[in-house]
Amino acid sequence: MTTKLEEKEMTTATTYKNLRTEVTGATAVVTLNRPQVLNALNTELMTELADALQNFDRDEQVRVIILTGGERAFAAGADIKEMADESTVSMMLRDNLAIWDKIRFIKKPIIAAISGFALGGGCELAMMCDMIIASETAQFGQPEINIGVIPGAGGTQRLTRVFGKYRAMEIILSGRPFSAKEACELGLVNRVVPVEVLMDEAHALAAEIAKKSPLAVRLAKEAVLKTYEMTLNEGLQFERKSFYMLFDSKDQKEGMKAFLEKRPANFTGR
Question: Which domain holds residue 233?
Fold first, then answer.
């Protein structure tokens, strides 16, 4: 049986074939690392990514995760070589997209830091994150229609929820890419920055969030995501219960005491 210290060392020391990982303070950075194919998302990479994110989700040192790629590409799409000869039955039996569900259920906030191509599966992976910082070189799109298929990892659903029916329909049916500026104007991206300061901006946002109560951050993320699944009344009830729940936490007592004493709060996640 491993101790908590040993478990923490395991989460931060794990090495991967297709990823680089590091922890700085309370921020974990996961970098997609298949530069020879512009970080094309194959099953091996996605399996490693799910594992890394789950490990950091369990690591009490980590409060925020940054997901990034290279300057040329965040991820240029799925690995087409892996799928080209598959059949309906083989795709259903392999069910590789089920790996993506593990990423969807990560409790800690994930910030995507994107330069270059975020196309197809790369765009879908970005949209699974909770915030997106894009460089001026970032280019998004769902070009699956050009190869005879449609987005399969959430593109039709998430893009429509952000852009609305008409913009999403145009982008998905035409397969045209769109710039970071357009993505920001339409609400997909938090901000667009010069490529040389991309990671600085992502780290600054992560550091700001990491100062907050981990329990409150977790429940706030969950409440926001529930808006996609619930009616307004159901969402309001969920939010209210989550709000009340936090009054049994030490972080709530510390946060309100610190406010009254006019000092920074020291949140512990308890």
Answer: 214-260
Measured from the Cβ of residue 269, the count of other Cβ atoms closer than 10 Å reads 14
Same domain, 221 and 204: no
**Residue 247: CB atoms within 10 Å:** 9
In a domain, 103, yes or no: yes
pLDDT per position as a tens digit, 220-262: 999 999 998 999 999 999 999 999 999 999 999 999 999 999 9
Whether 124 and 233 map to the same domain: the answer is no
201 lies in a domain?
yes
Percent of the chain topping pLDDT 70: 95
- 122 and 9: one domain? yes
Q: What's the token pair of residue 142?
A: 């769902």
Which residues share a beta bridge with 78? 41
Residue 260, C-beta contacts closer than 8 angstroms, at least 6 positions apart? none
What is the set of active-site residues? 78, 121, 124, 144
User: Tell me, what's the pLDDT at 95?
Assistant: 80
**What per-residue confidence (pLDDT) applies to 256?**
94
Q: Among residues of the chain, what percentage have pLDDT more than 90?
A: 85
Mention every residue, 6+ apart, whose C-beta is less than 8 A from residue 217: 63, 108, 109, 209
Q: What is the pTM of this model?
A: 0.91
CA dihedral 217, 223, 224, 225 (to 10 degrees): 110
**Inter-residue contact 29 to 21 (CB < 8 Å):** yes
CATH, residue 119 = 3.90.226.10
Residues 185 and 250 in one domain: no
53 and 15 within one domain: yes
Give the pairing type, strands 110-114 and 64-68: parallel
Q: Is residue 144 part of a domain?
A: yes
Mean pLDDT of the chain: 92
Give residues with Cβ within 8 angstroms of 90, minimum separation 6.
none
